[in-house]
Each structure stands twice: as structure tokens, then as C-alpha cells.
Amino acid sequence: MTSDALRRPEPPRIRDRAIPDERLEALPGDADRYLRQVRLPQLGELGQRRLAAARVAVIGAGGLGAPVLSYLTAAGVGRITVFDPDTVDATNLHRQVLFTAADVGRSKAVAATAHLRAQNPEVEVTAVVDVVTPASALEQLAGHDLVLDGTDNFPTRYLASDACELLDLPLVWGSILAFSGQVSVFWGAQGRGVTYRDLHPVPPRPGEVPSCAEAGVLGMLCGVIGSTMAMEAVKVLAGMGEVLFGRLALYDALRARWDEVPLARDPQRLPVTAIEDVALTCSLPGPTGPAADEVTAEELPALLAAGIRVIDIREQSELAGGMLRGAEHVPMAQVLDAAASGEGAAGIAAARLEGAVLYCAAGSRSGSAQRVLAERGIRVLSLRGGFEAVQGSGLETVPPGTSR
User: What is the pTM of this model?
Assistant: First the structure.
């Protein structure tokens, strides 16, 4: 045996996190509901009783949260807490299949809870119409057996991982973008296991990675990844099978192929000892709905006529579909650099950013940039809906580089 092997700690076994026998009770009254899965020897009556005794937190009731919540509720997971501050929007309906057109404008957490209770009255579902924050995460997630993170922003992903490491809770994580998805199971295991920080050690800069609103996403991809997350959760809770712990599953919908990458804990990474607010460095989007300091596409002609600068902060690769006539192109990173240093490329000076209108693809990155600039004392406006709103308004667009 090598000296390295002698020093290497015993790898943690995620299946040891199954619900303990002392918490188990008899199967719920409507046992026929679960008959087809109880017949599976890997699950059986014991596994079903474990699911019924489980307490699960699901962060996000959107594209991934919808299939996660639907399948965990159908499977008979006893108690589920749903965290989501947003409201249902019409643009959600092609992929967030838990909702209907009648839910538009309603709280996602409240609407989801109502649908889930109707789906399986035996499951206790609690709605929390709020974000999980650095100040509240430990209190909000404590008492659960497992957390599932289906959010679409980096601050919440780091927050969920760090809170779970501090609370010693397993975390099922999923991510989607365009035609690609990722799934893994994290567990700190007192410094021996793998967490989200081992996959992404450094949070990205604001706007560095586009959101689904900006890059697009195919609705069925949410079902593939969300269902896989629910499957991994059931395996952890019931103590069956080989869980995606220490492995990252990658799905490419266009190739109809799954790939896998091994994950290992960075031996130089110290265990998390406190919650870090990474929203200060990589931006956290707020709840959906109109925000302060937004303008609409219909207001742009008057603003341009008044001499207000309109800045397209998308990347060069995103400009193939054109730009708003009268706008100037300065990528988001250059805008933020100018604000930090007082000057920047393409004639962008911090003093000249004041009062400008920023737009990106769908409004997410411009909102993020707006918040970062506000922290530096620079007030700008964000175009609601981004370039998508421009295209839908009938305003004139021109190829990039065209004279104003």
C-alpha cells in the first residue's frame, strides 16, 4: 500500500444517508397508489416507508422544479418545502409543466403547492414565497433530509451548496441551457465529499454565462434533467442503487447522448465554515416582474431622440440578428470595467454611463449590470425584455457595424 493510500480518507457512502429506520411508520392508507414501485425489490415496502418519512426542500419551482416536484409528490415523499419568490409568466408555460395558463400572475410556490396537493393529498407540501438568502439559508434548510437545487443563477447554487455542507445535507443539483443539461449529487461529508465548489471553484463574473432567457432552452430538456434529479433524490432517500455522487452526468439532447465526468474533492479546498454572499461578485437576479428603472421598447425612440445613449451589452457572437438602430455596441465586461476604472474601451467612460439605457438578449444581464453599476454610484436604465422586445415591437434594427 502506498503512502498516498494511507493518507487518503475513506470515501463517503451517500447511500448511508437513507432515512433511518427509527423514523419509519406504516405505509400511508392509499398503498395502492405506490403498488407498481413497491413491487420493485430494490425499493420495496421499506424504501416506500423511507420516502414517506422523508423531508425534502426544493429550491426553485421553474423548469427543473416542475418535474422534480411532480415526481417526488407522485412517489410519496412525505414532506416537501417549495422555495420560489417568482410569479408564473406566460413565457414559463412551454417548459414549466406544473402550471397552466390560469396560473399566470400567481406565485409559483403557491400555485405549485395547490397542484401538488391535488396530485397527492397524502404529501404535505409547504410554499415559501421567498428566496433562500445568506442570512436565512441555514434556518430555512435545517430539518430537511435532502435539498434539490433547480435554480438558474450562480449565487443560489453556491448558497445552497454551502448551506448543505454546513448542515451536512446531500444536495441534488441540475442545470440546463439550450440543448444541454447537467446533473450531480453533492455531499460535503465533513470534508471528505464533493460539493458544488469542487465543480466550480470560482463564481463567474456578472453576465459571463447567459441565462436560459437569453440563450433559450427546449422545454423537454427540463423534463429529462428534472426527472433525473428526482430519480437521484429517491435513490438517496431510499438507500438504493448507485447515486451520481462524485460524478457529473452530461446530457446532449441533439446527440441523444449521456456522458460522464468524474468529480473529486480538491484536497486544497478548506471546508466551508460560513455562508458567503457571492451575489456581490456574480450577481443575483431578482423576482420576475417589472423592476425599477426599466424602460420599454416603445419608449426607446423618444429616448434616442433626446440624446440618451442606448448600449447593446451583448457579446459580438450574439449580434447576428442585428442591433437596434441608434444603439452602440459595448460588451458587458467592458461596461463594468469602465465603471470600475473610470474609463474603458469604445469611448465608454464611467461619467458618460450615467442615465444610459442598457439592453442584452432578454433583460437579465442588463438588470445585473444595472445593479452592479448602482453599487458604484452610476444609475442606468435597463430595457425590459432586451433585444427580444425590440424585435417584437417593430422598431428598426440594423446589422452590427452599420452607421447610425
Answer: 0.69
